[in-house]
Amino acid sequence: MDMATMGTFARWKYAAKPNSWPKILVPFLLGQSIGVSAANSISLSGLLIGGLFTIFLLLFIVFMNDWADEAVDRLKRTMFPEGCSPKTIPDNILSANDLLIAGSMAGAAALGIASIGEAAILRGYLFWAGFACLLIFVSYSLPPIRLNYRGGGELLEMLGVGVALPLFNIYCQSGEWLPPAAGEVLPAFMVMALASAIASGLSDEESDRKGGKTTLVTMFGNRSCRRAIEFLLLLAVLFLLLGRTQESTLPALIRILAIVIILWYGYRIWQFSDSAKTNAFQAQAAYKNDLHLAIWLSSSFIAVYWIWGATILP
């Protein structure tokens, strides 16, 4: 990529990191589908408000994380000039000030959408739910809390991606917080979100450690964290199996197919896990890609079934 010839749109598109969007869009889809299942119908206004909030939250996260991580990103570029992807600020794609302004505007827009939605679709706590979502992600990288630098980032990401964002969209769509369908899938999705959060630190192990950033990978090492990720996928399968009750809204066949997706990609991950060692960036990218496919495809499969079942099936 020739950064010198990139146009304005290309620079902002790169900074927005569209390849990472499923990490936020899948919990949006899952939460909306649980809400659709609970109401047995689809609220287009709930879908619109939830979708707009999620998009602005996503932009807030990617812009502000790059702004907050500038020092560590510069360090990684210095340590591995050819071993990491382009970095938004160190590679002069956009300035730190550009990202700070854009991220702040996106965060304000997200809160504005939540406030409008509270009145428009009669969800009495939507603004505060949106505020809680933003607060989780503010606490992740931004001062003074910066838990992603103090050893709590992975748990905070699990809470934000695996719990808070789905719950916001469930409430947006149905007006309920925890319908029965949520108990069937959210525990599994939550532990898979933790697995994804741990995996994010695999390729940054040495630069994070040298830059003073404390993550599970810098504390326990690459190999131990890969084993934890693989265990969490099996735990997700167990939670999906245990989530079935007499009142389940998810048929056994759909549940089994979702489990098969997780196990298939889990097997692929396990096969080449040992090659995804420290600084093996290509192997780590393949490892994370299959992990994300396990999470995103299984969750999206369940979500599509619920939406299809509530809106199309008689």
How is this fold's topology laid out?
Blueprint: H1 8-16, H2 22-39, H3 44-68, H4 70-79, H5 96-120, H6 126-141, H7 153-174, H8 180-200, H9 205-210, H10 216-220, H11 222-242, H12 252-271, H13 281-311
If you had to describe this structure to a student in words, what would you say it looks like?
There is one protein chain. The chain has 314 residues and is an all-alpha fold. The protein has one domain (22-311). 73% of the residues lie in helices and 0% in strands. It contains 13 helices and no strands. Helix 3 packs antiparallel against helix 5 (96-120). The longest helix is centred in the C-terminal third of the chain and has 31 residues, at 281-311. It is globular, with a radius of gyration of 20 Å. The mean pLDDT is 92.
Q: How would you concisely characterize the structure shown here?
A:
This protein is an all-alpha fold and 314 residues long. The chain has 13 helices and no strands.
Keywords:
314 residues, mainly alpha, 13 helices, 73% helix, globular
